[in-house]
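This follows on from our talk about sequence and fold. Can you supply me with one protein entry, sequence and fold together? Could you add the entry underneath, on a fresh line?
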Amino acid sequence: MTDIFDTYTDVTVAGGPVRLYRAGDSGPPLLLLHGGMLDTARGVWRRIVPDLAVDHRVYAIDLPRHGNSRPWQGVLDDTFYRRFLHELLDTLDLPRVAIIGISLGAGVATGYALDHPERVTALIAIGPGGIGAERTAQFLTWLLIRTPGVLRLTSRYLARHPASIRKSMISTLTAGAKTPDFDTIVELATAEAVAKAEHDEPVLDDWMTRAYGPFAMRLNLLPALPGMITPTLWVRGGNDRLVGATEMSAAAAATPNGRLVTIPDAGHIVTYDQPEEFNRLAREFLDATLDHC
């Protein structure tokens, strides 16, 4: 297993700290954006970076209020992230870059590609947030996240009860406890829960909670996708219980230069369940887009 996450650079972006990991000495640049809640770059991308770094210059960050990108003040919503990503690319001196995002990171990357197609050469969006007008249990979810203190209490609970994180991972990952590196995945998620509790952070990111309205999503990128110029690969795990097949099919159909791939035997975090298959698809797509640049 690669040790690229043992070396890093700390940079300042949009007024806050960002932990940056780099791998690969040559090739086109590629930025990786992980998901929300208990995700970190070291966790989500640990089996992705070594393969892609063979012929790409890979940049992976801990998003604000994740991993070692702490502390941050203020509201980190969709408006913040579109500005943050623009400043990040400027800081890294990346005029143009391909982006792979998962969940929250995929939603952020999609919004940025819509705003700045001149800077995004290709987009791979894995189970993105921000797609669709309504979610299951919309009102109840909105009510829960609006309940004062509940999301911070959840962070503290998870930090004190790592067995609950392990149980959740077993039910979420397709292979359960037999997932490669399962103990490391749980260890990293638990460490993230502890960090959130120590910094008095809510378990869900502002980008996620501010997207919710009581009866419909306040953030829905689907209507804007017919204007997407960036070549886009939409990726969904066949067992994903968070992002539906209907929404992903609609996103792919709405994107002029987009297509959908569903990976069997994978859930929401495809890079945990099927890293080898994802790497194959990503490399094939990135190579094809590079040929047409």
Q: What stands out?
A: The mean pLDDT is 95. The domain at 4-137+219-291 is CATH 3.40.50.1820 (Rossmann fold). Residues 78 and 160 are 30 Å apart (CA to CA).
